[in-house]
Structures are given as structure tokens and as C-alpha cells.
Amino acid sequence: MGLKESCETLQRMTREREGNCHGVRFGGSSALMICQLAAGFVDGFWLEGLHIWDMAAAVVIATEAGGVVMSTVPGEKFDLTRRRVVAASTQQLAVQIQDRIVRVEEELFKAEHC
């Protein structure tokens, strides 16, 4: 997924938050945001296009704190080199974020190709 598509997905997910989402925060640093998740300040994080150095240490910190880290693609094993991450305080929330990403990307694809 390119930067343009990732930005469109992010914009739509931000505009169309589901009822159980209080707000969306962008901290400017993916490592900081994942560490905030580990500290309990945020419940979930998602981004694509990250480099290993943007998230490696934070992923370790989050998992050691009991957080869940996975790929944005359902069924795909998390791999730092794939440059996509969902991190959440629980497995259930991580899957909900992952499912929402898939739904939004499908909607965007249909809108572009219909």
C-alpha cells in the first residue's frame, strides 16, 4: 500500500470512528505512541509504512507490558520488515482495529473501481 492509500484509509477511519472510540490522537512519533500504549495512555495504535527503526524497540516494550502487536493484514504473521503494525491493549481490540482497516480499505477500493 502506498502513502496515498494509507492516508486515505487513515482519514476515513478518523472521520468514521465507531461508537466505542473516544478519540484519535496522532503523536508525531510512532515509537512514542506505541510506548504510550504500553504505559496505558492509549488503547490502540495503527500505522503502515513504518521502518524497523521506527517501531522495533517500542514493539518490545509494548509486548513486555502485556500489549498485543500484529500485522494490519488478518492472518499475516507480524514482521517488522513488512512495515505495518497494529498495537493494542488487548487481542480483541487489536482484531477490531485490524477488521476496521480491512473494511475501510475495501470501501475505498470499491469507490475507486466502480
Shape: globular
As a whole number of angstroms, the C-alpha radius of gyration is: 13 Å
The neighbouring-strand order within the major sheet is 1-3-2
Low-confidence stretches: none
Assembly category: single chain
Distance between termini?
Answer: 19 Å
Number of strands: 3
Mean model confidence by pLDDT: 83
Helix tally?
Answer: 4
Query: Structural class per helix/strand content?
Result: mainly alpha
Residue share in helices? 40-55%
Order of helices and strands: HHEHEEH
Measured by DSSP, the beta-strand proportion falls in: 5-15%
The major sheet is characterized as: 3 strands, antiparallel
Write the layout of secondary structure elements.
Elements (H helix, E strand, L loop, with lengths): L2 H13 L14 H10 L4 E5 L3 H13 L3 E3 L13 E5 L2 H23 L1
Antiparallel strand pairs: 1-3, 2-3
Short key terms for the protein model shown above:
single chain; 114 residues; mainly alpha; 3-stranded antiparallel sheet; 4 helices; 3 strands
Q: Could you describe the 3D structure shown?
A:
- The chain is built from 4 helices and 3 strands.
- It is 52% helix and 11% strand.
- Strands 1-3-2 form a 3-stranded antiparallel sheet, with helices on both faces.
- It is globular and about 45 Å long.
- The longest helix is centred in the last third of the chain and has 23 residues, at 91-113.
- The model has no long low-confidence stretch (mean pLDDT 83).
- The chain is mainly alpha-helical.
